[in-house]
Design brief:
This protein is α/β, with parallel strands linked by helices. Helices cover 37% and strands 23% of the residues. The protein is built from 19 helices and 18 strands. The longest helix has 18 residues, at 11-28.
């Protein structure tokens, strides 16, 4: 790790550390880079400040070099020009490339099935192809800088670091094989774990296949202050695994909230970031370990317009719904090799992740999806306008609230920024 800072940080503090990161990258990797690739997260991480951090790095290097951005979309929908401008500010649209998880990948190796089987304790037994955006290898880069937010994550334990490559710039086959492996290991066994089985696979792949890349990582950790505001509490910069581990250890301390079993949780998925249940279901992932048996999770999602990020994934979710691991895996095993559950195994994994396994109830108050469609995929429905009257996010504080009618709820304003769990399930 090159350096880190752990304290409450203002926006200018973060920008200053980004400037230091750029200077250190010149010292450690390339003094006078002529081509620089920036790899920020997509719009669902916009609250992390990754947009203005990326814009600052662009301005620094664009003085002397050609600088290209590729948002690490994974299988998410590409940003519109308006979204790019909102997130990345003054970066020219023509300098922002779109990653296409189906068309842009190049296979450079694989994680052997024997390793996958061993590291997953036999829960998965297939090879994971290492297939990434071809521009990483087909074009010459003097610097490749990854920007991201380290926070508990349902697939990798914690987000960011080499997730930017293997999911963010991953090809379809890699993303599908990876996500299904993680789902088989169990979402609640992944959340908040420093090195999950899939993270171990990615670390192996980075060591064996990406060692020649001139790259480094700029990672932020965030938490709530006493006023209930989400602020930066740490920056970690470097080119090694310890850079990730240091940030993840900080996130473990700051982003995991231990609660008693919660009977009623009200969570908000911001309308300018979350348009599909594919990403809005983070509200389920991050709270499920805190939910009481028979409890209710109410998700207020004003931007929700669809289920999947792509039409074929949307159709898959509509066809099968969020029906639980046992049923989904039975359907998967019975599915022919060219069937939809195997062709889109990343969607199969998503169906598992998004189910409460019948343990608690999930209700959405969506901005743009009908009750019939919500019920179709096995989610409850609440009218958005009526819901925000009863549970006005502007009047609720994070944590326990007692409403005028006496109802007690637990409110979470930004579920994607943390993990909530009972002490028992955290162990």
């Amino acid at each position: 790790m090159w350096f880190h800072e752990e304290k409450s940080l203002q926006k200018q503090d973060v920008i200053n550390l980004a400037i230091r990161f750029a200077e250190t990258a010149r010292e450690q990797i390339c003094k006078n880079p002529k081509r620089v690739l920036l790899l920020p997260p997509d719009i669902t991480r916009a609250h992390s400040g990754a947009g203005y951090i990326t814009e600052e790095l662009y301005k620094i290097f664009a003085k002397d070099a050609e600088v290209i951005l590729i948002p690490t979309l994974g299988q998410h929908v590409p940003h519109t020009p308006e979204q790019n401008k909102w997130m990345f500010g003054s970066v020219p649209e023509e300098k922002i490339y779109k990653h296409n998880w189906r068309a842009d990948s190049k296979k450079i190796g694989e994680i052997p099935a024997d390793f996958v089987k061993e590291i997953s304790n036999g829960k998965a037994d297939w090879a994971i192809p290492v297939a990434l955006n071809h521009r990483l290898f087909d074009e010459k880069w003097d610097l490749i800088l990854n920007i991201g937010h380290v926070v508990p994550h349902e697939v990798l334990g914690f987000a960011n670091h080499n997730k930017n490559y293997f999911i963010g710039l991953g090809g379809k086959d890699m993303i599908c094989a990876s996500h299904l492996m993680a789902a088989c290991c169990g979402i609640e066994n992944n959340l908040g774990v420093l090195t999950t089985p899939l993270r171990a696979c990615y670390n192996k792949a980075e060591s064996e296949f990406l060692g020649s890349l001139p790259d480094a990582y700029f990672q932020v950790v965030m938490s709530y202050n006493s006023a209930g505001e989400l602020i930066h509490t740490g920056v970690y910069a470097g080119d090694d695994t310890e850079t990730y581990l240091a940030a993840a250890r900080a996130s473990q301390k700051l982003n995991i909230t231990v609660t008693p079993p919660l009977k009623k949780v009200v969570a908000v998925m911001q309308g300018d970031e979350f348009y599909s249940t594919w990403v809005a279901n983070k509200a389920i992932y991050r709270t499920r370990k805190a939910m009481a048996d028979g409890g209710e999770l109410l998700i207020i999602a004003p931007g929700l317009k669809r289920f999947g990020e792509q039409a074929e994934i949307d159709n898959l979710i509509r066809k099968y719904g969020y029906t639980g691991t046992e049923k989904v895996m039975k359907l998967y095993r019975e599915c022919p090799n060219d069937g939809d559950l195997k062709d889109l195994a990343v969607g199969t994994a998503h169906l598992i992740h998004g189910s409460s396994e019948g343990r608690f109830n999930i209700t959405y108050a969506p901005g743009h999806i009908s009750k019939e469609d919500m019920n179709l995929v096995n989610f409850g429905y609440a009218d958005y306008n009526e819901t925000i009257k009863q549970y006005d996010p502007n009047k609720l504080k994070n944590g326990f609230n007692t409403l005028p009618d006496g109802e007690e709820i637990y409110f979470i304003s930004t579920p994607s920024a943390g993990l909530w769990s009972t002490a028992e399930r955290l162990k």
